[in-house]
Design goal:
DNA Polymerase III, Chain A, domain 2, twelve-stranded antiparallel beta sheet, 3 domains, eight-stranded antiparallel beta sheet, alpha+beta
């Protein structure tokens, strides 16, 4: 087996493929990259049994063949080579692959290609396309809301994003049961039904792979237990998470007693500053007091019901604070426009920071009810996005 | 106590002082910064008993006083403040210090200033000055050769740099017993004698503190057990390491059988590339074969003694390689000029990488003897620098 290729092109392909390398080598072959050179093409495969990646690049193939090289080492070696082109030469007799470039020579031991679990193309029942930037947006604006898989305590369905179709739109939903994010996008072609839970780890890798300067379509194919994504030279296949995703719309509040419209940047800056004190303790609690400027007489006479019926938009502020009795406290106020009655409410500050990172509009809207009822966060630039956040109970 | 100061100036002073904060809080007061506001000046002190730092900045002092704030938190809070100025206000009644800037307010608990071990100015027997860039050069070109203090196995004297005077020059020496680095610089004023071992940890912090755009003098004062450095607004005091530093010149080879002159960049690049294979095993071994281009007849007839007497400069190369039987191997050659006989020699690659990082000249000179005898590395741009490196024994 003998071939050469352009170093930068190879490095790009390797940076895609290694996303599917097994990290810990229970099965050493899964820490390897499968390389097949044939007819001017180099195919690279990686497969850790959760996600599989196949990618292609141009190569000058002098003598076709296949081999498996330790993935991380192959990437490190390629990075270190000085020239523009890289030359591979494999002598099956001694099992050594020589990799040369401008007088520099590395040799790596070939693993056994016949042991590598080759990736087959899915023959799916459902198939559709979606523009890559739409798919990236779906993942970026929801994926962070999944339960962390590392804690090992989360139910598997909450370690993935739920993908479904509503009124012709693709909907992605993610939750860790304390907060939930929903985003909707237009598919490339009409689809009727879809009910899948895709591991968020796979989606995060996918975002890195399909992000290109020029918009392209991603073809998605699903079977009962697997999903594949195809985009330009790369084919990605993942297992699906088994189980039924809860009816997420049940957590949407039926009505909103108080609406606050606030500058996204000012709110995010204040939360980030004050998070410093919140994060010094394990509870991460930040307190928000939404206060409208009212005529004093008004505040004394109105009943709760009257407040709720009152749709006047008032100038007001949110007073943000956090206290750790061991360290100290922090507080500041941000102006906003308030409709409805005043509310005092507390959150895990990390869940607020997360959503403020994805909000792109100049303003965001917070929909509030009672202090222990979930709030709704919306983005002025994206009516398809909704974030539901459950407050925390505090002693004061 | 009430004062204000410019945020950026305060941040710079804090970044200096926190270098002397205790990390682990066996004594909580040592994780605090002592602040004293008086007569338009804010003094900040930190003291972890190994190194103590005093630094000053301008302040508008409305009400003088002293306090101790948790150092890391004070820095984090200051960084987060939005305005140009920072206002401190301490109410001794409740022990709370409020730190405000443009409507943002943090409060931190005051620690007990009377518990803080205040730093006194050293009254030393020996005192001299050295330009800051000379002191930085001494440390940067030798300090990395000290024994790592973390392993806990090194003799204390090898965790510091030896500072002495030879022929009117300041000499700094560092060794971990496997390699040794020496650098010489001119002092700012003549000094006669000096025999100190300064902890390298302190010297590394010092380099960060005294590095200024405009060259300035550093005043050094020593007692039996302590040393102080004074530079602009900052005063640093450190303990010295007790013990007698070995007579380092004993490890200098008395003669050199082979001299190789090589491009620093080409040699460093090759070593860095091949280090990838060397570092995959614990031994970190890299093999160097120095080979001159000779007439074949010459190689057969000359005796060792004749080679040594031969001062002809020949074209040649060093063939650099490393092998890990589990992974593979790497090799390449770099051209050089060789005087004397050919040598095969092996090193811990990290010790070669370290010295190549500090060599600034276009070429470096390697002085070699037998394969198990120390080599001498020199920099074409700096005749005051010498690096001695002991080879490793290999099976082949």
């Amino acid at each position: 087996m003998k071939f050469s290729c352009v170093k930068e092109t190879l490095l790009s392909a390797l940076s895609i493929a290694i996303r599917a390398l097994a990290n810990k080598a229970n099965t050493p072959i899964l820490t390897g990259l499968y390389l097949k050179a044939k007819d001017g093409d180099l195919e690279i495969q990686a497969n850790n049994n959760e996600i599989g990646i196949v990618t292609h690049l141009e190569a000058d193939v002098e003598d076709q063949g296949e081999l498996v090289l330790p993935g991380k080492y192959l990437q490190e070696v390629t990075r270190r080579l000085p020239g523009e082109k890289v030359y591979f030469n494999f002598s099956p007799e001694n099992g050594i692959v020589s990799i040369t470039s401008e007088g520099v020579k590395f040799s790596l031991k070939n693993l056994n290609a016949s042991e590598f679990p080759l990736i087959n193309r899915l023959e799916g029942n459902t198939s559709f396309t979606i523009p890559n930037n739409s798919l990236i947006k779906l993942v970026k604006r929801t994926g962070y809301s999944c339960a962390g898989g590392d804690a090992g305590e989360a139910r598997p369905i909450f370690t993935g994003c739920f993908l479904t179709v509503e009124e012709g739109k693709i909907v992605m939903v993610a939750t860790n049961t304390h907060r939930l994010a929903v985003e909707r996008e237009q598919p490339g072609n009409p689809i009727e039904e879809l009910n899948l839970i895709i591991p968020v780890k796979v989606l995060n890798e996918l975002v890195g792979i399909i992000d290109s300067e020029v918009p392209v379509d991603v073809r998605i194919t699903c079977t009962e237990s697997k999903i594949s994504f195809e985009c330009e030279n790369t084919y990605i296949v993942s297992r699906l998470i088994e189980g039924k995703f809860p009816e997420y719309k049940r957590v949407f509040p039926k009505s909103i007693a108080t609406t606050a419209v606030i500058s996204s940047k000012e709110f995010a800056d204040a939360i980030n500053r004050i998070s410093f004190i919140a994060k010094t303790s394990n509870s991460n609690i930040i307190k928000l007091e939404f206060i409208a400027e009212r005529d004093p007489s008004e505040a004394l006479t109105n009943t709760d019901d009257e407040y709720e019926a009152d749709s006047t938009v008032r100038e007001g502020k949110v007073h943000i604070s956090s206290t750790n009795p061991e360290i100290g406290n922090a507080d500041e106020s941000v102006p906003l426009k308030l409709t409805g009655k005043d509310v005092n409410i507390s959150f895990n500050v990390n869940y607020l920071i997360d959503v403020m990172k994805v909000i792109e509009g100049d303003t965001c809207t917070l929909g509030l009810n009672k202090p222990l009822e979930p709030i709704v966060v919306q983005d002025s630039d994206d009516e398809e996005f909704t974030y539901i956040l459950t407050p925390v109970r505090t002693s004061n």
